[in-house]
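Take a look at the protein record below and tell me what you see:
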Amino acid sequence: MTRRGGLGAITLGMLLACSGDPTPRRIVVPSGASFRVAADSLHAHGVIRFPRLFMRYAAWTGRDRRIKAGTYELTARQSWGDVLDALQSGRGLLRIITIPEGWNLFRIVPQLARVLEVPVDSVQAAVADTALRRRLDVPTPTIEGYLFPDTYAFSPGTSARDAVAQMVDRFESVWKAEWDERGRAMAMTRHDLLTLASIIETEARVPEERPIISAVYHNRLKIGMRLQADPTVQYALGRHVGRVLYKDLEIDSPYNTYRNAGLPPGPIASPGAPSMAAAANPAKVPWLYFVAHPDGHHEFRETFSEHTRAIREVRRAAAEAARR
């Protein structure tokens, strides 16, 4: 085909390309992907209708190389030139962030600021927004725990407040009315349940143990026993420590459940749905104590003397495993 004929076919393809559909489509261009892979993905998602002509046009204009990997938000209304500009410049790339279960604001805030490319101060202001806290009925200075752990894709230019609002909306969509009912039956608010769920999230390593760990804390609350949860001390310290030391237990903080009875003032992390469910539905067991094995599973006991023996057994088993 001559250059003139090729240009004519490409021009015709461009005229037929735009469907006028303004619906945003998410296109993933993997790292190291060829232009053909990108064109096929654009075609599969309905952004372009003629992938071969699109590839010819890109080659003819010299823009079929050096495309940037990532997740784009594009529409079929965009011209081929606009699509190519986006692929080369990264314009339209979504800001992707994954918040794992158990992360708290100490980790979420700087990560969210980095992904959104906004100042950390703006994210800190967003999670402390007075109106948002009032709407959620949150008594703490921030909405710690209410940013649901998930993967989010934010459009370019998304503000910290809008991103935080989306994450809170996700939390509210996951939270079940039946958990509120269970909470009322136990004289607990949603904030109380979420606080307990955050402790369960940071303690549990084996999924099926969540309701049992929940029961231990519920049992302690019923008899006025202190929760003595190490993760609350770590939160009070403001940093993660590999092992909570005796001196750490003396920290003067309302989050230190070794010194203060009852629940801490609020969540210490963002719990996932299974931990929320466990907080609202504790297992029917008598346990008051638990100790963790090195692999993360726990031994549960009812009395302190039994708990002391369990600690010795776990330590002995761990020492024997280390000698092998």
DSSP finds 14 helices and six strands in the chain. The longest strand covers residues 25-29. The two ends are 73 Å apart (CA to CA). Residues 1-5 have pLDDT under 50 and may be disordered.
